[in-house]
Amino acid sequence: MRIVLHMAKVRVAVAGASGYAGGEVLRLLLSHPEVEIGALTGASNAGQPLGALQPHLVPLADRVLEPTTIEVLSGHDVVFLALPHGQSGEVAAQLGDDTVVIDCGADFRLRDAGEWAKFYGGEHAGTWPYGLPELPGQRQELRGARRIAVPGCYPTVSTLSLAPAVAAGIVEPRVSIVAASGTSGAGKAAKSHLLGSEIMGNASAYGVGGDHRHTPEITQNLSALVDETVAVSFTPLLVPMSRGILATCSADLRAGHEVDAEEAHAIYAQAYAHEPFVHVLPRGQWPQTKSVIGSNALHLQVTVDEVAGRLVAVGAVDNLAKGTAGAAVQCMNLALGLDEGTGLTTIGLAP
Amino acid sequence: MRIVLHMAKVRVAVAGASGYAGGEVLRLLLSHPEVEIGALTGASNAGQPLGALQPHLVPLADRVLEPTTIEVLSGHDVVFLALPHGQSGEVAAQLGDDTVVIDCGADFRLRDAGEWAKFYGGEHAGTWPYGLPELPGQRQELRGARRIAVPGCYPTVSTLSLAPAVAAGIVEPRVSIVAASGTSGAGKAAKSHLLGSEIMGNASAYGVGGDHRHTPEITQNLSALVDETVAVSFTPLLVPMSRGILATCSADLRAGHEVDAEEAHAIYAQAYAHEPFVHVLPRGQWPQTKSVIGSNALHLQVTVDEVAGRLVAVGAVDNLAKGTAGAAVQCMNLALGLDEGTGLTTIGLAP
Amino acid sequence: MRIVLHMAKVRVAVAGASGYAGGEVLRLLLSHPEVEIGALTGASNAGQPLGALQPHLVPLADRVLEPTTIEVLSGHDVVFLALPHGQSGEVAAQLGDDTVVIDCGADFRLRDAGEWAKFYGGEHAGTWPYGLPELPGQRQELRGARRIAVPGCYPTVSTLSLAPAVAAGIVEPRVSIVAASGTSGAGKAAKSHLLGSEIMGNASAYGVGGDHRHTPEITQNLSALVDETVAVSFTPLLVPMSRGILATCSADLRAGHEVDAEEAHAIYAQAYAHEPFVHVLPRGQWPQTKSVIGSNALHLQVTVDEVAGRLVAVGAVDNLAKGTAGAAVQCMNLALGLDEGTGLTTIGLAP
Amino acid sequence: MRIVLHMAKVRVAVAGASGYAGGEVLRLLLSHPEVEIGALTGASNAGQPLGALQPHLVPLADRVLEPTTIEVLSGHDVVFLALPHGQSGEVAAQLGDDTVVIDCGADFRLRDAGEWAKFYGGEHAGTWPYGLPELPGQRQELRGARRIAVPGCYPTVSTLSLAPAVAAGIVEPRVSIVAASGTSGAGKAAKSHLLGSEIMGNASAYGVGGDHRHTPEITQNLSALVDETVAVSFTPLLVPMSRGILATCSADLRAGHEVDAEEAHAIYAQAYAHEPFVHVLPRGQWPQTKSVIGSNALHLQVTVDEVAGRLVAVGAVDNLAKGTAGAAVQCMNLALGLDEGTGLTTIGLAP
């Protein structure tokens, strides 16, 4: 016999419920046992039923979107912000300090106001606790937090794929990341170059040469692990799938500290041995995005190319789940003192 | 405060755990609160860890497949059979009458031994209660059953998309079904024409003109609703997606009983008003497979083409979920007296 | 030794060169030996180099789009109009009668002004010779024509897939068409529901119940073959591919005139025996869109379902090639007295 | 008036006509004005009509595959070998020295017998002129050649994307290549992990850490440009498309010789200024595979990441066309003294 204390549920609002990030937050919250879904807001979609915009969320089909105002959002225990970059600051400022505010946007990720201005434009809103509990020391910072910045999707997989090697000092502080992404990371706003007709059967590069907004975030994360700036060459690719990022991350072995593939694998396995959502695969098995779709898992493998003198790690993540909404729910759990994995799964949807 | 009696969990085995149907049964069982996963078996894959074959099922990654023998499968409360057609009969015959046996294959679906021999070859194994609880009177037959035949994926969506119209007598007993399917319905066995290179960017027809094995099953289902044989023209298509079936079903309006679109919609809405997994969409909104991927939901819409004098209904289902493994779990719940929806969801994975 | 008279090339303009239809016209014209490409026009894209909009058309990369005006378009031997529906009439009216004007839009396809108004809105511009030379008597009408209306993509494949059966009187005059299409038929204008994220992994129905604009065009084509109105139930599907339509067309066998599969195939084979671009496959082989991508070929197969008493024909076509731009070039060849297949191919791009 | 000498056509045989490489050679040869297609051979498919195996090659539908024997292949001016790796040597040895033999396999690409044995196994067959005319001095070697080894698909795009930078000495001799490929490069043999169900919606890495067979070929090519061994870190990815490779290539800027993006672009533009099939895009426009599908073009862009101190070049190629069969035809043209581009196009098939 098991006794469960049936406490009042946590009341949650989602601002930006018609987009991909907002929809994924809702998909996860619908199976979260401690949550009651409150207000759902939209911008131009306010007034429409959610069933017309997110037809996969059947239990919420008749819910009508409200405008994103402080009146609508106040009175909830938790507010998820899934708004366009630059819009979270103003909303958050109006929500009380006792409300847990979790920003799925970029507004509060970067510490350097100059980098913010360079990559996003406008004034820097500030810096919140960074929602990547798998980074050293970071989980503690998120427990009980009332403001959390969810990492970008590329930074999540890139950082976790390189962190053990960088932290262990087995690679030179110059890393290269080529990350193939599905298109949902680009959002639901209509753009010609993201049409199905353009995307299917097509792979393309964009934001090459350091132009992508996630570059400074990855640099910030990796540099924080060591006493020096890590040079990050980051190239994002669009490939024909809706969800998922596969990040190929490499760096020269540190001269004089060369490890072999087995040692590298052991370092990674140990680094994530107690992480519930980072799954270092058995040696020889390489990640695929399909294994993690819909889940909060990140699959990871590492090897050493002894001929080229280079460590290569490959990580796979669902950009909308662990890459955004799953991390957001994981952070909410930490903020509320719930079990970190409540409402989340490590099981992907395949085939 | 809520008190939960923590009874012993139901112990479940899955025969054919390395294929798509078996993998999907496991994916669903892993989030089923009343189930404990027992033996997993394979044929040529016996001896391999499941993580190498189904890398998305992380919690079972270290489980090793056993051979499909009576020794391995006995001692479980429930056995799911996800075997090639024609292999279930022999296994089932050796399992005790108190074991719930749920066959995801075709062996026990058809009542007519001649049809079985024509479409599948070999001897007819028999007929089990048919696992489509949404058919009139069928749910009662499944409660407490110890042998259940899970319907084929095409028959599930085709039958439920046409049943209200056929049963209400508003269409002539000659129906046409064109069902566009993802490729996972064809299984995981390697075949050249199912290679990604062949499938992507390609739509094709097969089994045209009544040649597909699911034709007699659909005919059996629809004819049972009325006092006559319903003529079924069934054309399956392969389209470039892994999961999902979209079935376009039509029939001439019955002469003298013509309904309009609103009346047809009302008949459908009423027919499924109390069904937890059949979701008749609001008028004007048409189904898409993406809304039901990974879920046990079937989305449905119907209209009347007054110029052509024809009723057209379109249903969407995930062939592996409600089309196979979801139905199997739904049936298990009924057989065991659990809540029918335990471990299942109506929420699809989109985008 | 062969002697070739090197005549002055035909000078061709393309209005709407930045869209999918215009781009495909250009792709074909670039390998047409008798053509010289003149003005290229766009609307909002005027002023941009074609290389930024159609990067696959390398030889035209530096060409700059001009506005769609009579000044720009005049002075060419042939003008292709690839404009939004409703815009061709005004442009065409200003072009001289000696200019060959080929409209890839819908403006001049329908004979019935009421149907035009119902499905497209606005005033009916008129009716031009219909650019489907494979219809009985139609080729003669196109030779030397100065105005040609290119058929819609769905009507092309639907009409040619059903015409032999309808004309031979072996089916009842009530046909059902379910046509799975790639997304390029919906054009290049940015719309959320056509984003890659929405389209990939998804099949959906739209325009069901006679709502699609191509329904009256198909009805017009088939009814013209016989002395009665053919009832057309037409359902278009969107499936995850850029190009291609697979049309599944069926009709009840005409009572008292039942043919079997072999007879049906013979009727089709004979009907298209001399057509260079219609390829009736050997019995038992079913069409796939991939075989015709990029080509002007239409692949076709037919059978009879004797149990259901229904003829089923399946046709595959590239919506942008034979379905639009290929037909346009084929019509231009006829209009100019060139060999009908000049610059066209029957060879698809696979895999 | 133009006078054309109508010489006897070149008679060509294709060994391995049922596979992807052989099919693509035939697709190109069918539009080559100087070629007559002779014997077509297969292994297990001998005796079947080509129409059943390559339904897109309509003009050859009735051709029957013959066995791959010297009797069948002899008597042709040119023989293309599209055989599994390791099988070309024996066939080629039996063909006369006056026959042009073009091997699409790997047998004669590598100079180092040890590398061959390590990556392919078995005995090294020898080294033939390497069919990449865009490499310095290479075109001359191919003119009039009677044996030509067509490069691998990955090496073609990787080598040409890095060659100008390596040759100019503006990068350190340690390069990183991450190449996202469609699945047709893996061939038409049925393998479970290449099924459409596995591939769609999925990105994965394989052959990581120097394990892929194309690594030594890329190393051989780049090292030949300079007086030192270039260290090559090569990671291939499978992404959900049939055709195309997008290679992201990077290297640290050479210390003391740092160039900026404009200088790098100028070096690339100059290197390929006279190459008919290498298209360096205008600055700011990045390659996409769709622009080159079906064509012999390679699209290329380069930039410099000044923060990371790294040059990044991205190349796109159709693995079956310029990556295999297009290069083979280009080489045939050079061997026969024809115009290098005969029968080839720079125009891709998009969308």
What this model shows, in words?
By secondary structure, chain A is α/β, with parallel strands linked by helices. Chain A folds into two domains: 10-150 and 324-336, NAD(P)-binding Rossmann-like Domain (Rossmann fold); 154-317, Dihydrodipicolinate Reductase, domain 2 (2-Layer Sandwich). Chain A has helices at 20-29, 50-53, 70-73, 88-94, 113-119, 138-142, 153-168, 196-199, 214-223, 261-271, 321-336; strands at 2-4, 10-15, 35-42, 66-67, 78-81, 100-103, 147-149, 171-181, 204-205, 231-238, 245-253, 278-280, 298-305, 310-317. The first copy, chain A, has a seven-stranded mixed beta sheet with strand order 9-10-8-11-14-13-12. In chain A, strands 4-3-2-5-6-7 form a six-stranded parallel beta sheet, with helices on one face. In chain A, helix 4 (88-94) links the parallel strand 5 and strand 6. In chain A, helix 1 (20-29) packs across helix 11 and helix 7 (153-168) packs parallel to helix 9. The longest helix of chain A has 16 residues, at 153-168. The radius of gyration of chain A is 20 Å and the shape is globular. Chain A starts with a strand and ends in a 15-residue tail after the last helix. Chains in contact: A-B, A-C, A-D, B-C, B-D, C-D. Chains C and D meet through strand 1 and helix 1 of C and strand 1 and helix 1 of D. Chains A, B, C, D: Its EC number is 1.2.1.38. Chains A, B, C, D: This is N-acetyl-gamma-glutamyl-phosphate reductase. Chains A, B, C, D: Belongs to the NAGSA dehydrogenase family. Type 1 subfamily. Chains A, B, C, D: GO terms for molecular function: N-acetyl-gamma-glutamyl-phosphate reductase activity; NAD binding; NADP+ binding. Chains A, B, C, D: It holds the Pfam family Semialdhyde_dhC_1.
